[in-house]
Design a protein that fits this description.
By secondary structure, this protein is of the alpha/beta class. Helix content is about 40%, strand content about 15%. The chain has a single domain, classed as Alpha/Beta hydrolase fold, catalytic domain (Rossmann fold), CATH 3.40.50. A seven-stranded mixed β-sheet has the order 1-3-2-4-5-6-7, sandwiched between helices. β4, α3 and β5 form a beta-alpha-beta unit. The N and C termini lie far apart (about 35 Å).
């Protein structure tokens, strides 16, 4: 296991760590980075994601030397949580975008394609024979209805490969099977922004699972699917700058 990182912004400013989701890369943050790079030091990690959530959290920790705001998308939100569980000295606040919060919530929205890809033989054949349009169709559930699927997301998934995708997906279930996200956050008294997309087709929205957690603030973005950092970069940028303590006017790109 290993992780790389793309750094930008001013080293003297607050550090924000961006953790991509399943079958993704640091490029998933391309629309948010311009909102932050003038007022933060950005560490956009590139995870191997072939092991457990804890393995990835350890790889992120190895890149850090100061307390940070950690922003994780989907699976990356669980990596952020595991990082705080292992190294609370490195995390001062969270922004978790569409994190799978229980196995049940994830299973409710998981489609037949993802289940089929995990099957030996069948999944390998599906992955090898998928046309460009079929690959794009498989990614549509990550965005609100009618949204254009970015080419970068398709490229990232193909670069990761089927085996990495299946292992990364199973790691999510293992982590949440041990303890759901609400229980984990209950033991992490860290300011947390939970952000969900109202039109998320991959994840059931929580009801009152986080209601008793005073340090957790939940936001549901209207018109947004499972990838708010791409679909609603202004809103996500505002949430990050707010929890970082940067006035909104300073958080606007110049």
């Amino acid at each position: 296991m290993s992780a790389g990182a793309v750094l930008t912004g001013n080293p003297g400013l607050p550090t924000v760590v961006l953790v991509h989701g399943l079958a993704g890369s640091h490029r998933a943050w391309d629309r948010v980075v311009p909102k932050l790079e003038y007022v933060t030091r950005i560490v956009a990690v590139e995870l191997d994601s072939s092991g457990s959530i804890g393995d990835d959290a350890g790889d992120v920790a190895a890149l850090l030397d100061t307390r940070t705001v950690v922003v994780g998308h989907s699976r990356g939100g669980l990596v952020a949580t595991a990082l705080a569980e292992r190294r609370p000295d490195l995390v001062c606040a969270f922004v978790l975008l569409c994190p799978p919060w229980s196995r049940a919530a994830r299973l409710t929205a998981r489609g037949p394609v993802e289940r089929a890809l995990a099957m030996p033989g069948v999944g390998e054949l599906m992955w090898a024979l998928a046309s460009g349009e079929q690959q794009r169709t498989a990614q549509r559930s990550a965005f609100a209805p009618g949204a254009t699927v970015p080419d970068q997301f398709i490229t990232d998934a193909r670069t990761r490969g089927r085996r990495n995708f299946v292992r990364s997906s199973r790691a999510i279930d293992s982590y949440l099977g041990a303890r759901p996200l609400a229980d984990r956050l209950r033991n992490l008294p860290i300011p947390t922004e939970l952000v969900f997309g109202h039109l998320d087709a991959r994840l059931a929205l929580p009801t009152d699972e986080f209601a008793d957690l005073g340090h957790v603030r939940t936001t549901v973005l209207t018109g947004t699917g499972h990838t708010p950092q791409w679909e609603a970069p202004d809103e996500v940028g505002d949430l990050i700058t707010r929890i970082t303590g940067i006035p909104r006017s300073e958080g606007e790109s110049r």
